[in-house]
Each structure stands twice: as C-alpha cells, then as structure tokens.
Amino acid sequence: MAEHPPAVVAARRDLLRQVAAEFGSAYVYDLDLVRSNAAAVRAALAPVQLCYVVKANPLHEVVLALDDVLDGVAVTSPGELRHVRELGVAPERVTFGGPVPTPADVARAVRWGVRAVHLASAADLAPARAARDAAGTGTALALRVDPAGGALPADPVRGAVPGDPVRGAVPPDPVGRAVPADPAGAPSRFGVAEEALPGLAERGLLDAVQGVHVHAGSRLRDWAVVARRSAHLARIAGSLAARLGRPLDHVGLGGGFGVRHPTDGRVLELDRLSPALRGLPTAFPLSPGGKAVLELGRYLVAPGGVLVTAVVGERWSRGTRFVFTDCGHHGFPVPSPTGGPHRVVPLDDRPFDRTAPPVVVCGPLSAPADEFGVVRGWAPRPGDAVAVCDAGAYGYSMSPQFFLSRRTPAEVVVEHGRARLVRERIDPGDYLSWGRPT
To answer: Which is nearest to 284 in space by CA: 337, 324, 246?
Structure first.
C-alpha cells in the first residue's frame, strides 16, 4: 500500500499535507486527474457516449469539470435537475430519471428540453408524452427495463471479500442480492420487467416509447460480465424496436463500473472491455440521430478524491493498535464505495517498519462502523495526516454529517497543481442552532 499509493496521493503528497495543516479534515478532489481520466475513458469507449452521474459527487466544481470533457450529465432527482440547470449545463446534454419520477418532475424536465427521460413504468408514458407534445421539445421518452435475472451473469468479484488477518472477515456487500434460479429474476422496484414487454407492446401501451434504459448492476469489475450484460441490453433494444416497428432514439446502457478494491487490487480491464462496447451502437437499432449512452459516476470520480484527516489519538487493545483520526464515519460513510474497507495512505515521509504491528485506522465516533482500514508497517505520531482513498464519490454528500454533532470536513479542489477551498467546515453549533427558538 505504501509502495504503490494511488495517483492522487503519489502526485500531490506535499499539497495534501498542506491542505490538512491549513484546513483540517477535508475532501480533496484533483480536477486535473478527474478530467484526464474521464477523457481517457470516453476515448476508449467511443462512439458510445459517456455521461457523468451527478449523484456520485454533485459539487459544482466536479460537475462542470466533467461536463467540459464528457457528453453530458445524468440526474436522478428534481434537486439535481435544478442544480445542473443553475450551473448552466445545456439541457440537450442532460438525462433525467429515477425510481419514481413524478409526472410533475418529468414535465419540468421535458419543458426544459432534456435529452431523454428514463421512465420507470408504462403508466408514466402517457403523461410524459402529453408534457412533451405541449412543450414542443425533442426529449426522448425511454422506458427503464429490469432485465430477466437468469439472463445476466453474476460478477464473480462481488460479494464477500477476503478476510483481513487483523480485523477478521469483511462482511458481504450489504446491497448485493442473490439472483434466484427462476429466469424471471428477483423482484425489483427499478423499471419494467423484461418479460412484461411483449404483452405491453401488444396492447399498444408502449407506442410512445422512443428509447430504452437498463442498469443491471453496480461495482462491476469483471469486464466480461459487463460485456455480456451490455450484449443482453442490445437484444432487449432490438426486440423492442422490432415490436414497435421503428428504431430507437436513445439507448441507455446504465453504468455500474467498479473501482479498485483495496483487499484484492482487482480493477476493471477497460482495454478488454473497450472493443466489446465500441461495437454496440451498430448492434442497436438506433435512428439516424439516436445515441447509445453510458452513465458513470463512481468510476470517474472516486479515484480522483481523498479525505485528508489527522491522527488525534491511539489505543492498544489485546495486541492491536488503534489510531483515531479527526474525521470518521460522520464525514465519510463506511464501508467505502468499493464495497469494502478503504485504502489508507499515511502522508508523512518516514520509512515504513515492516516489523511494526498493523494499525487499525478509525474515526473518533462511538460507533462500531467507524473504521477506515488497516495500515501495515506504519508507526504513527499525533498530528500525522493520512489520506483515505477513493473518496471522490459518495463521500461528502452521502455522509451522516450531523451524526454526533462533530465538525464536517471541508471540500477542496486541486486544479493546475494548486489547492482551492470550495466549502468550509461546518461547526456543529451552527447546524444545531438551526430552527432553535431565539
């Protein structure tokens, strides 16, 4: 871990120490790294278009940085829709969806003229079509489809990860669900079941459909699984277009690419996946102006961000050394966005001592989940700063910031090698007083 730190730490170690000294606990997002990585992914997958999923990190600096180099953004709530509109993102670069978009939400998106809306049920099509006809915009109405479970291969690298000799076995992915043997798959609140499409089409309930959207997983790191799931989507799109008697204007490939897992180091082999995805637009029955769109969030921004925080104390228990940092679970949810423990990299320059006992790095909370990960060979000192890695996604905005009334971390961006404070730390006295009678 110490010999091979992630790129953002390897390139910015001195700057990260300065941020920790000046601002205290802070998220640091390297916009230069995020832009270059995103541009490389886009180039590898072209002609498939690539959109940024705003929920991964809605900070305006991040959204605008990625809108500069990608083909657009994907939002999943009215708040995110308003956010990107106020940031000046062009409506034709925006895709809107969510598990239960209300007719009013859809109408608002359609009136603005977004590229496409992903609708969760056939019943949503009629009001969406009426809103689009009234607005006179070119928004594509895409139906979200829940693929038949038996047709989708499982990702062999998801689920339980190897046990840690210091802390024991890591629990299975808390959101992973076993798919039953029944070809129809498990019940899902996301989209229309694939096997229901023929009957809906025969009854004329899909006449307004102009596109299809499928999201069949998350944290996927096996390129072959992603390729086969995408090929299955091509079959869904082809079958639907045949039943409708016309090509589609929009095919949403979903996303769900996983980042490097800290326990096994396995990464998604983009160079092997790229040829499979590049050929998809020709496999889809797309209209002349139709687009095949991949939506990624975590994969684009998680590796470009870290949480820097400093050691504030330590404790030994039954031969195990616990080190406590200023920021913990309240500022960065655990387990990490990778589905396991976080990578923790000390920022001091002292050499590692391989004879030193492993160190469990924890936050300061009285909560069992408040542990980041294990560092081996490190002899920490009070005030030492550490970088908690893969923090660019699902960190600040997903954290239980008000839990136990501790100061929130700041948010800092790095651009052209310089750090800039974007959001200051919030003192608990400030938010505890909100709504208090004066």
So the answer is: 246
